[in-house]
Every structure is written in structure tokens, then in C-alpha cells.
């Protein structure tokens, strides 16, 4: 089980990082097959998540939260999320399907994958040892949260064409910090419910900001 946990984390992170590159490679030889794989990409990942969930006895934090979050804390969290919404750099498709995927489907899938599966497997690897990484504001996070946040951050390189410039690195760091926050939230409450909700809010805010800016640019060019 220990080896399987390590292998699963490495495989999921590796495949997510190279997801789009894989499609580009297939397209060189068979563009039709590449397009079909892209079309069913989400279904494939849902299938992988389902298989891992069935094979593993771990709950993956898929349960009711242990406690409710006070209104004041929710407001503070929402305020802290504003920079993520404004600086995300994402440009989702403007049709209903694209917006639905980006604002609802992707947040749910990513939280199940990173804060559910990968965080649970990292917790299993660390064991009962309480190893904390000093992080400002959060007053330190556990090693397993730190590892899952690194995986979450690294996989976001693909969204920006694997360009190692300041803009991309900043956005990947934003994803890493968001991963620290949501991972910490999951550990405190023992559930991914809140992290899913805040992820949906973050992506929805980023989408609204992008749509507003793109519409303003259209007006400016008229």
C-alpha cells in the first residue's frame, strides 16, 4: 500500500502536468484520435478517480464537515480570495459549456483529486507523525498539505503553455498558495465540501473578471 500510494501520487501529478502535451503528441500522428481523447478527457479522469476510490479503503475526505465556518471567517476568506480571482490569468471558453466546466466541473474534480485523493495518500505516507512546514499567515501547515499543494501548483504550468516566465511562475505560485489554503481547510474540517465551494467561487470570480475585461476591450476597439 505504501508503494502504491507513492506511485499513485507521482502518476496523477505527471499525467496532469503533461495532459495537453500528450494530446499534441498524439495529434502529430492522428489528429482525429487526439480530438476524440480531448473530447472525452474529463470522462477519462472521472473514471480514474472512480477506480482509485474503489481500490482504496481511504475515505478521501468525502464526508460532512466536522464544523461550520463562522460568517466573519467566511468574509475574510472571500476577501483573501480576491487576488486569486483578479490575477488567475485564466481565459475559459465563453460558451455555456466552457463556463460550466471551468466554474463547476473543474473545481469539483480538482478538489476530489488534489484535496481528496492526493492529500489522503500523502497523509497515509506521512503517517501519525505531525510534521509542520512554517508558512506565514497560516501559522504552518502539515507536510501532507504542503506536498498536495506542490502537486496542485506544478500541474498549473500546462494552462500557460509551460512558459517559465515571471507571469507564469506568479500564477503557479497563486495556485500553490490556494492549495495550501484549501488543504488546510480540509484537514481542519475533515471534508472537501468547503474547499469545493470556495474553489467554485474563486473560478467563478475569475471568469466574471475575464468576461468583464474582454467585453471592455471590445468596446475600446470599436
UniProtKB/TrEMBL annotation:
- Which GO molecular function entries does the Swiss-Prot or TrEMBL record give? endopeptidase activity
Could you tell me the superkingdom of the organism this chain comes from?
Answer: Bacteria
- Keywords per UniProt: Membrane, Transmembrane, Transmembrane helix
Q: Does the keyword Transmembrane helix apply?
A: yes
What is an annotated GO biological process for this record, any one? CAAX-box protein maturation
Q: Where are the transmembrane segments?
A: 6-23, 44-62, 68-86, 98-125, 131-155, 167-186, 192-211
Q: Which InterPro entries match?
A: Rce1/LyrA-like_dom
Domain CAAX prenyl protease 2/Lysostaphin resistance protein A-like as annotated: residue spans: 102-204
Name used for this protein in its record: Abortive infection protein
State the organism named in the record.
Answer: Alkaliphilus metalliredigens (strain QYMF)
